[in-house]
Design brief:
Helix content is 31%, strand content 15%. It is α+β, with helices and mostly antiparallel strands. It has a domain of 167 residues: Immunoglobulin-like. Strands 14, 15, 16 and 23 form a four-stranded antiparallel β-sheet that branches. A four-stranded antiparallel β-sheet has the order 18-17-24-25. A three-stranded antiparallel β-sheet has the order 20-19-22, with no helix packed on it. A hairpin with a 5-residue loop joins β8 and β9. The longest helix has 32 residues. The chain is globular, with a radius of gyration of 28 Å.
């Protein structure tokens, strides 16, 4: 079958097994892959799926383990969600719950405490360490069960449990995390005046002790992982400016995005997990180097892992890997280990040679401030090719998903010698505007010597839709509460403000973590900083988008009794790459056009939204269902995925995965050289982006029958940017969203975050 998803040679055997043994085909597929290890049979002639195996051929590395994870994950999805996913046509969003506030989860949806992922990657086992074993009653398919919440968030005065103030940080707290031995616990349980404590009480105490040991072990494991890949919170001690820039950046949000997480899972569900770690290895290089599961909730990941493109993701790379779609190794080591940068270590050596001034420690055993003891030069960090490691994305079947780096190499900017870093790490986002100068570090309140400073904001079209307590990254927030506890804090209700606290009744029920009014006021002070960082990130996002997209003036070409015609040009403001670029098939950039008469009545509109928040294109569910008309005048720069059908012809799809009736659909390498066609035969991307220095002109015609002679009309055109269309949320909702968020919550936050980049207005009188 000439399609992006094909059938492996094992499919025939599985279909026979289904017919003869009446067994669920996907379970047979999983068992077959697990029993055959990392290979599948090269022939499918035998009717017995468990007969002696013919010669084997190798398949994608890690295939069986990835499929096992996905099979277990699918078991967590309720039957209704699976039916909707299988039907394909039923993409309607779930109706919002009565209390659907993003920041005010219902008590039944409280998210439990974070724990350490189990070392095993096999999610088919019945181990109690299964990180995807969600409560069926909850909406969050990635969240752990409620049972873990009591054990991880409790602890009372027990000195072995982490204090509330320690939160999720790896920097604070006692280093001694070892729990007492079983014998010591038994001795404690056997003491008492009566010598015969109730068996139920003894069992309860043993359970609590076991929970404390589990929590202590998890914290100890986090410290161990910190010694391999230090958290950005550790780097923030000496690099506060870089940390603040990065904390609200798209790089910092890369792994936390619930949309990306659900999209990755959906694609693996549709391809029998053969897409593997293709998405997450760019979004979370630390987690993949640690061998974390692809599907585990961010609440269960290690702190450095959920930081996405964190400090060590760039500054612990010492090889120029080139265009490998994000598969690269990070150098392991604690904070004392070498880092890699563009300058080398001359200034660092000066600091290390002045311990009395900077009060630093060069050894793990010496007192003083812990810093890296060597900075090695890695000049590739200053070159566009380093960015191309992740920003040119080509699937292993030849499908070119993102081409930002490939576009750049053919541009006037590249010929002038301007780099990605010049435009995206300089003074102004999106323009080669030079760099700031200042100290690269503040060591013990003493600044280092001034040097060129790169901006680590990396502004772009994405924005956060999650709780401000967990993003932007914040050292104090991590020390105050865990991520699960922050999700319980009702920011929009005004907790921790005088206006709320002075009026709240004594009967008001706060979550256990937020019963203290002092904690709520401390949280409010932190959230004030968080909202300021988010506002700054929005300003810089709109800055880079306005530098990339330019809107001309409205040009009226006819205004009489035959109709009103006008046009307007949208121009690429940069000559460094196309706009939009990168993941341009999911970037919604469109014109919203309205024509109103002198009384404010709308006589013409294009680029308006349906009730879900989508524009009225072919993927609008309301257009698809015939409830709204297709907007034939819509001007949109969103590229489209086009897939080839089984019997010929093509169709647009939200995801670049065509539907398959096969038992085991999979992504397979293309059989012909994609260098000849630039794409596989089964799918392609119809690009709508504007080339460097180019422009597109939108033309509109208002019919004469809605116009009146002598009437004065106002024409308004807005250029709007939104990170993804709402129909993408509908397409991936079957996988569930992290943090207990519903599809309706996700969609509302996506629309709320859209930005109007430019507005043009003119007035016309019909002659």
């Amino acid at each position: 079958m000439d399609s992006l998803t094909g059938v492996s040679t094992v499919t025939g055997r599985l279909m026979v097994a289904t017919a003869e043994y009446h067994v669920w085909p996907r379970l047979i597929a999983a068992l077959a892959l697990l029993s055959w290890g990392a290979a599948v049979p090269a022939s499918a002639q035998s009717p017995d799926p468990f007969a002696s195996q013919p010669p084997l051929m190798a398949i994608h590395s890690g295939r069986a383990g990835t499929l096992a994870q996905l099979e277990r994950y699918l078991e967590e999805i309720d039957a209704g969600a699976r039916m909707r996913l299988a039907a394909n046509d039923d993409l309607l969003l779930d109706a919002p719950a009565e209390n659907d506030s993003l920041l005010d989860p219902a008590p039944s949806d409280d998210l439990p405490g974070a724990g350490q992922p189990a070392p095993s990657d096999d999610l088919l086992s019945g181990s109690s360490d299964d990180l995807l074993n969600a409560d069926d009653s909850g909406d969050d398919l990635l969240a752990p069960s409620d049972g873990s919440a009591d054990s991880l968030l409790g602890g009372g005065d027990d000195l072995l449990a982490p204090s509330d103030s320690s939160g999720d940080t790896l920097l604070g707290g006692d280093d001694d995390l070892l729990a007492p031995s079983d014998d010591a616990i038994d001795d404690l349980l056997l003491t008492g005046d009566d010598g015969g404590a109730n068996e139920t009480e003894e069992a309860k105490k043993k359970e609590e002790a076991a929970a404390r040991r589990q929590t202590a072990n998890a914290e100890h494991e986090k410290l161990f992982l910190e010694s391999k890949y230090p958290s950005a919170n550790t780097c923030a001690t000496c690099h506060p400016r870089q940390y603040e820039d990065w904390s609200a950046s798209q790089h910092a949000y890369a792994q936390l995005s619930p949309i990306y997480m659900a999209m990755q899972t959906t694609i693996n569900m549709k391809t029998s997990a053969t897409n593997g770690d293709f998405c997450i290895r760019c979004h979370n290089p630390v987690g993949m180097n640690l061998g974390e599961s692809l599907y585990v909730s961010n609440l269960k990941r290690t702190p450095t892992s959920r930081e996405g493109i964190t400090c060590v993701a760039c500054h612990r790379v010492n090889k120029n890997y080139g265009k490998i779609s994000g598969r690269f190794a990070l150098e392991e080591g604690d904070v004392f280990s070498p880092v890699y940068g563009p300058k080398g270590g001359q200034e660092l050596r000066r600091v290390l040679n002045s311990p009395e001034e900077y009060r630093v420690s060069q050894s793990r055993d010496d007192p003083g401030r812990s810093i890296h003891t060597e900075a090695k030069p890695f000049f590739a960090l200053t070159k566009p090719g380093f960015c191309g490691t992740c920003h040119d994305v080509t699937l292993f079947n030849g499908f070119r998903l993102e081409e930002a780096f490939a576009e750049y190499k053919q541009t006037p900017a590249a010929r002038r010698g301007e780099t990605c870093q010049d435009c995206h790490m300089g003074k102004v986002q999106g323009v080669a505007s030079g760099y700031d100068y200042g100290p690269a570090a503040i060591v013990g309140d003493v600044p280092t010597r001034n040097r060129k400073l790169a901006n680590h904001t990396f502004a772009g079209p994405d924005y956060s839709i999650i709780h401000p307590g967990i993003f932007p990254h914040n050292v104090e927030a991590a020390q105050l509460k865990t991520l699960e506890e922050w999700l319980q804090f009702n920011d929009r209700a005004g907790w921790g403000t005088d206006a709320f606290e002075d009026k709240v009744s004594d009967s008001y029920k706060f979550p256990k973590a937020w019963t203290s009014i002092d904690d709520r006021y401390d949280a409010r002070a932190i959230l004030k900083v968080q909202h300021e960082r988010l506002a700054k990130a929005r300003r810089l996002r709109e800055q880079v988008l306005r530098n990339g997209f330019k809107l001309g003036d409205i040009e009226v070409t006819r205004s009489d009794t035959r109709g009103l015609d006008f046009r307007i040009a949208v121009r690429n403001g940069t000559d460094g790459h196309g706009v939009p670029t990168g993941f341009d098939a999911e970037r919604l950039i469109f014109l919203q056009v309205t024509v109103k008469d002198s009384r404010g009545n709308t006589v013409y509109v294009s680029g308006d939204r349906d009730p879900n928040g989508d524009v009225r294109d072919a993927h609008s569910l309301y257009v698809h269902n015939g409830e709204l008309r297709l907007d034939k005048d819509l001007f949109s720069l969103q590229s489209k995925f086009v897939v080839r059908l089984l019997r010929g012809g093509e169709r647009e799809q939200v995801l670049a995965v065509n539907s398959s009736m096969d038992v085991l659909p999979l992504v397979r390498p293309e059989r012909r050289a994609t260098t000849l066609f630039g794409r596989p035969r089964g799918a392609r991307k119809h690009k709508q982006s504007i080339e460097p220095g180019g422009s597109r002109t939108a033309e509109y015609s208002v019919p004469a029958d809605v116009l009146k002679r002598g009437e004065r009309y106002t024409v308004t055109v807005k250029l709007i940017s939104q990170m993804v269309p709402v129909n993408l949320i509908a397409a991936i909702q079957g996988a569930g969203f992290d943090y207990g968020m519903s599809p309706a919550q996700i969609a509302r936050e996506v629309v709320r975050g859209a930005s109007t980049l430019w507005t043009r207005t003119t007035r016309v009188t019909i002659q």
